[in-house]
Amino acid sequence: MNFQQQPTNIFSNNNASLEKDILNEYQKLSSHIEKINETIIHINTNDIEILVDKLRSLEKKFGLVYTLFKASVYSVVTSNENVIINDENTNRPLMF
Asked: Which stretches of the chain are assigned E, i.e. beta strand?
């Protein structure tokens, strides 16, 4: 029984094409990352002011809606308290 392993040629033609394919994929990845970087730079330099203005406007509208909602809830709670207080002053049972 001969268990000696045959030496493999790491520089064979298959490995060279595999290496070339890997390098091509790295080149594609690098170009995609460069495009993403350019897009982020464009957004940070040009579009950020527009986005901030839109968010500021939205924040004002949200604050108004929140204030109106809070006032409405307060109005409902106080009117319900008045109904309960008025019902407590009478001798009739509470109706739910």
From this structure: none
